[in-house]
Amino acid sequence: MYKIIFFDGDGTLWYPKSTKWSKKPFWVYDASDKPKDYLKHLILTPQMMQTLHSLKKRGIILAALSTHPHRRLEADFHMGHKIRHLKLDTIFDHVYTARPYPWGKGKVMQSILKRLKIPKSQALLVGDSYVFDYLSARRVGIECILIQTSYLNIPNGRKVRRKIRNIKMLLNFV
Ligand SMILES: [Mg+2]
């Protein structure tokens, strides 16, 4: 049913090994004073590699998409390091970065889908942020599944249709 699945980076593909899903993952960047020092804090989230392989076997295109507080070139540089460090470079077909605005990922996904000629109805984003993932995707008509972490903050009165407690649950939806 899905032709392409986008995966958010921090808190989705990887998280800090000491705080896992108990706390927003961005502290690792503040705690690192040397460039790329943050790599030592990051590990893949549980069952991520097996799940990615299962999706790939089903013929689904895999894309990593992470928001960065940098300009495009610098963002791509950091993203490339994380992807290689976590040995994700051979499994992902595409690696992208988005600009640091709530609508950043939606914009990037729109232009990629247009280029790959894939309808929005066949795309999915998996993420951990209501604003940067869920709203960003829904605003441009793309489905989004959120990971139920302890820091997930859904405003009162708003509903997210699909949430997962672990990455493997994703296989039930695709
Ligand atoms: Mg995230």
TrEMBL record:
<dbReference type="InterPro" id="IPR050155">
    <property type="entry name" value="HAD-like_hydrolase_sf"/>
</dbReference>
<dbReference type="GO" id="GO:0005829">
    <property type="term" value="C:cytosol"/>
</dbReference>
<dbReference type="Pfam" id="PF13419">
    <property type="entry name" value="HAD_2"/>
</dbReference>
<dbReference type="InterPro" id="IPR041492">
    <property type="entry name" value="HAD_2"/>
</dbReference>
<dbReference type="GO" id="GO:0008967">
    <property type="term" value="F:phosphoglycolate phosphatase activity"/>
</dbReference>
<dbReference type="GO" id="GO:0006281">
    <property type="term" value="P:DNA repair"/>
</dbReference>
<dbReference type="InterPro" id="IPR023214">
    <property type="entry name" value="HAD_sf"/>
</dbReference>
<protein>
    <recommendedName>
        <fullName>Magnesium-dependent phosphatase-1</fullName>
    </recommendedName>
</protein>
<dbReference type="InterPro" id="IPR036412">
    <property type="entry name" value="HAD-like_sf"/>
</dbReference>
